[in-house]
Amino acid sequence: MTQAIWEQGYTQNRELSWLQFNARVLAEAEDDAVPLLERCKFLSIFTSNLDEFFMIRVGSLCDMAAVDKDRIDNKSGMTAKEQLRRIYAAVEPLYERRDHAFEDVDKRLRAEGLCRLSISELEPAEHKFIKQYFKNVVAPVLSPQIVDAHHPFPHLEGKVLHIAALLGHKKSERLGLLPVPASLPALVFLPGDQPRYVAIEDILLEYTGNVFEMYDVLEKTVFCVTRNADINPDDETFGADEGDFRKKMEKLLRQRRRMAVVRVELNRPISDHFKEYFRSRFDVTDAQIFLSRKAPLQMGYVFSLGDHLPEKQRAALSDPPFTPQQPAMLPAGQSLLKAALKRDILLSYPYESMEPFLQMIREAANDPAVLSIRITIYRLARKAKLVEYLCAAAENGKDVTALIELRARFDEQNNIDWSERLEEAGCKIIYGFEDYKVHSKICLITRQERGGVRHITQVGTGNYNEKTATQYTDVSLITSDESIGADAGAFFNNMALGNLEGKYDRLFVAPTSLKNNILALMDEQIAKGSDGYILLKFNSLTDIDVIQKLRDASCAGVKIEMIVRGICCLLPGVKGHTENITVTSIVGRFLEHSRIYVFGRGAEEKMYISSADLMTRNTERRVEIACPVDSPEVRARLHDILYAMQHDTVKARVLQPDGTYHKKPPVPDPLCAQVLLMQQAINQAREQASHPEPPEPGWKKFFGRLFGHKK
User: Which of 218, 315, 489, 637 is buried most, with the most CB atoms less than 10 Å from its CB?
Assistant: First the structure.
């Protein structure tokens, strides 16, 4: 009898792998070598990551456990209920680690004069200040409520802090609830020269007795609930007249706010009797109630903590500032639109600026020769110059089409708002498909020239988000290759017609051709045996067909190197299965986000950049694009990135056959990929300023110069 894949020992559960990723984020907060204010940020990122994990992944598993109890995960053999049990057990020690990390960071910040204080630590004058602050500022905006026969339990918004108090009154007992008003600041700074502050929830907790003054406060705690946010428009039943997808999404967003509770967080231990109120009211088990003894339940405030320190001190506690540089392949002052008509150009974010791409759209909006601009939009910044330029293009008579994905999770409302703005300006808006999210990142500019039209196509690995372009590592290819432009034109025509079965010459397009083509490229390397080579950089691996093909390639002797930031359901180094595979993860200052696929070496190498991770959702349930990279100069620049990742000895962690990650052993000359790529961008910008021609490409030149090696 054939063994199931999960019985063969070279795969692991997706959710547990993701928790390992978030543990690597937490490890950055624990690292003494990371500047103090940056450690604070990693604590916050870890917390918000975990919030979203419970909202989406745990929420989805809770639903599955209720309606499809016997369904098993094809990579671990576990049912949804078994996965939940393992998740809760794995999360609890992460809370303990976060508490220890927060306590250490908080202690060190105190030594720097930035003090988070409990009420008991306040000086008499400070205590008086807080008392007056509560009376004059806080009390007038509070909305306390008791829960009894005449006062039903209210709906509580997810991730909103509340005070819960067990109240005694005339030998009876009831629950008191006090939401922390959103209008109040997260931190209250005390008078004086030093930045000393108290958290707003600590103030409310201190004065809970004043709020419920007719009762005896028997126990109290700060808490918040996390609700299932895994909404799916296609799972909902709407009337036949529900024609506007935008209205459908707005209805779903209202529904999300009332979905089931999947987690309760408390900031202090409470009695089992008090805990029963949470279990019964929210229908949760003890395993779903988590205790955060030291770290606050919400940590978004940490990003502005440094603003309360003198500039010199803040700089000493932060990463050195970095400004995205002028792109190496585009001399300063040169039009990207005109340059792209002559040669392929790569932009590498955040090392290089997104501004030239935005200026290309602005230039196209005002260029009489430009006939149309077509673009896919998944996530945008809250303030987006891109939208401004697209609107200007439409107002200038250009044919502007924007395919906006309204189901980009937690950006739904932002995308709804932008779609309305673009529509008002005269842009054509498409919302994509009923069953498939459009996650591709492609822009097509069509110009009228003598003898016909020319296309400038941009294909990227990341969103057109001007904010995250300074925080995420992504690459963006701009090309006037007519075969790619023709495919891009066909792609947009197919999207407008609702056709997922389109045929393309150069582009791989999911859900129809991307996975099949990637598997075929792997087969080409398998045919070469030990001469085969595969190098992949992406964010997550869950697709079972890709995993099995990688295993087959390893068994055939193909050397496989993968740089996988997050989930990796394949376990490398498993005897008889994956001995020829290595998996490295890098978590650093910037979020690794680029997707680069390389098959073969030298003259036979085939390279692609893509919007897609190798996850089932990307390969089968989304519209994704992978684009070939033909230019030797662009390939060399991509190898700069890959070489840095492969040789990182500072932030890189290597996946072991048992699913754990180990840091690489110390070396005499440690190498941090992101630091090197920042320095490379600075060096190339300086070189370009003195010699305004595209620099000689290639990692050999750059790294040889950096380390004193011969070319």
Answer: 637
